[in-house]
Amino acid sequence: MAANSRVAVAAHIVSVLAAKCDEFVSSQAIAGSVNTNPVVIRHILAALTRAGIVVSHEGKAGGSKLVKCPEDITLWDLSVALGEEHLFAVHKNPPNPKCAISCRMKETLGKAFASAERAAQAQLKKVSVKDLLAEVA
Amino acid sequence: MAANSRVAVAAHIVSVLAAKCDEFVSSQAIAGSVNTNPVVIRHILAALTRAGIVVSHEGKAGGSKLVKCPEDITLWDLSVALGEEHLFAVHKNPPNPKCAISCRMKETLGKAFASAERAAQAQLKKVSVKDLLAEVA
DNA sequence: TAAACTGTAACAAACTCGGTATCAGACAAG
DNA sequence: CTTGTCTGATACCGAGTTTGTTACAGTTTA
Fold it and tell me: Nearest Cα to B36, choosing from A96, A135, A14, A118?
């Protein structure tokens, strides 16, 4: 799957913020760690702000910092914050009414994929930002 | 995640073949059920053929049929056949050597994502084409 | 030989993704 | 109160992906 890496970048961002406990860190400094453009970072930070995970501060000496404790932020929370909770997609072609399989297949597949997504979700919920930092250190 | 729907289409294809037990079904007939173009079907069928899941037959009265029993084909087998086993991606920016987090983050995230993928994989392995057909019927 | 089919290549339209440039506005420091 | 630094937002680009389409050579049956 041509999955994007926004959840990974979000995890990186939040880890950097967690490491600099309670300081306001600029998007430029974070971008230095991720090795990308500050605007890319700010775009993801905006989603994390909407989700109540970080708070930002405009103006000189501004930046972002965590609102929640690192152990209360999981990879799943980041996925939800970015609207990336779906791992599988069902084709969206309208069903052929003449074919019984066609009429029910998408619904059936949806259930199967949903259970796989729940399994992955349970695993993502087990990994907190605190765990990531501990592993890195 | 901008997930594609090729695994879903593959599942649809294989279900149609399983329903028409041991007949050779043309890509056009399958396309009629999926409601798409025959070439799209043939492209996926090519991958399934390489994986030894179906066999095709050129010429008039040609088509494709299953090689394996429906209960021995799982959604995971289809994912592997299409090279779609990865659900998550880590950003590929080179790490910033001045930042300890940056140097280890990608590796750490890779492990976390791998465990989530394994969980989803285990679930996909539980669903066979026979199960899909039973659910549809 | 004619018809029906596969296999494959080439292409297009729509979309996604990561990156970049730019600008208004906030705000702290001097 | 001016200057410098920062966020937030928008717009844009190039590359790649996805799905669908057209076209055509080769195979097989009747």
Answer: A96
